[in-house]
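Private note to self, pasted from the team thread so I don't lose it. Backbone tokens:
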């Protein structure tokens, strides 16, 4: 295998030896051979000892590592990696489950495939490539998916237009790269959701909140529930299914609210316990009074880069203060952050500060994270992006 060679500076090989899947540009001493963005490169230490193989890219993260073994990256490699990801989901009751036909098949670094996301929606696989290297290997990835699912696969949709690095020369376009299908109704714990991967956020649904939605249903009986940043109503459907007295869904997007109402009608003959509001979340929270027993705060990522971390933490603090000040005594707050750059410690401190500002007595009941189909690579703590707390407010 004659790959261009990326040689690291002396002492900069330690994170690779600890199996971290990223090589930062500042760690590179020199590159031998012609290399273009997306090319496979061999990474060696300063003494020319083999360390890893990965995709080269322009930017702070210069190499995303695919393997720490000196092996060929061929069709068999992709089939093996994606098969292992599928088997994990099958072993833990997600794949081949009649009660659940939506899950994440590949979670980038969590499944040893940095830069690749594959979500499965009842026969349609939706891909998002976050690196040129992954995009250039689309054909091998497609073939692996087709081989794994066989006749159960109806379509593969590529949604990489907004995720491919903007400085690259590749012009990714969203569209079907195998088969075709329109909107789909999926099952999650028996609940029905209408998914639009062509126009929806992310790949169409926030799959990562599945287990946390289920937990909401377990606490919702006879409660008055507010779902803020509700998107297409995932938490709201579970609250209704759990027997909530009433459920209010809030999102700034009218389209999301329309889909929330559709999802309610898919699951319940009588939707009179539910009401949806297409308004700004912060405005809605300004004066909610003392009417809600259970509040869910699941905002979009307030910070995608470290340089805006402080502003993001202030945003989380303001949001949680508004909810904690007005929730009923004895109420539960489910509060989340999906910002990768916000650590668990930062988030917990922010909720602590918000609680201190309200002066209310608050206890943590649950510390939440992402589910098994969003595994965290133990060598890559950055892949643990979702964090949440359930707090009891006296």
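Design output:
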């Amino acid at each position: 295998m004659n790959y261009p060679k990326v040689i690291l500076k002396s002492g900069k090989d330690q994170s690779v030896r600890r199996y971290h899947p990223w090589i930062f540009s500042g760690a590179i001493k020199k590159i031998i051979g012609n290399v273009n963005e997306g090319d496979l490169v061999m990474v060696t230490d300063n003494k020319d000892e083999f360390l890893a193989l990965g995709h080269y890219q322009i930017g702070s993260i210069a190499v995303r590592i695919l393997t720490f073994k000196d092996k060929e990256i061929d069709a068999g490699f992709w089939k093996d990696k994606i098969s292992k990801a599928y088997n994990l989901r099958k072993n833990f009751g997600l794949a081949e489950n009649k009660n659940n036909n939506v899950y994440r098949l590949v979670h980038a670094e969590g499944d040893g495939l940095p830069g690749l996301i594959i979500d499965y929606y009842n026969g349609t696989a939706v891909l998002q490539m976050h690196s040129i290297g992954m995009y250039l290997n689309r054909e091998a990835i497609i073939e692996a998916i087709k081989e794994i699912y066989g006749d159960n696969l109806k379509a593969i949709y590529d949604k990489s237009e907004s995720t491919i690095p903007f400085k690259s020369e590749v012009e990714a376009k969203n569209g079907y790269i195998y088969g075709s299908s329109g909107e789909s109704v999926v099952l999650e714990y028996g609940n029905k959701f209408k998914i639009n991967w062509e126009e929806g956020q992310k790949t169409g649904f926030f799959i990562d909140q599945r287990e946390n939605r289920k937990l909401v249903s377990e606490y919702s009986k006879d409660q008055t529930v507010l779902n803020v940043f509700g998107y297409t109503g995932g938490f709201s459907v579970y609250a209704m299914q759990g027997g909530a007295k009433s459920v209010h869904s809030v999102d700034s997007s009218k389209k999301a609210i329309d889909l929330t109402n559709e999802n309610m009608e898919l699951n319940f003959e009588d939707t009179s316990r539910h009401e949806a509001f297409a308004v700004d979340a912060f405005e809605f929270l300004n004066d909610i009074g003392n009417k809600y027993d259970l509040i869910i705060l699941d905002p979009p990522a307030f910070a995608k880069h470290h340089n805006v971390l402080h502003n993001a933490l202030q945003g989380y603090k303001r949001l949680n203060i508004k909810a904690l000040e007005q929730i009923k005594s004895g109420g539960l707050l489910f509060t989340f952050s999906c910002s990768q750059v916000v650590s668990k410690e930062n988030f917990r401190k922010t909720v602590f500060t918000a609680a201190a500002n309200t002066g209310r007595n608050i206890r943590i009941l649950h510390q939440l994270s992402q589910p098994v189909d969003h595994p965290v690579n133990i060598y890559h703590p950055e892949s643990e992006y979702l964090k949440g707390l359930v707090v009891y407010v006296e």
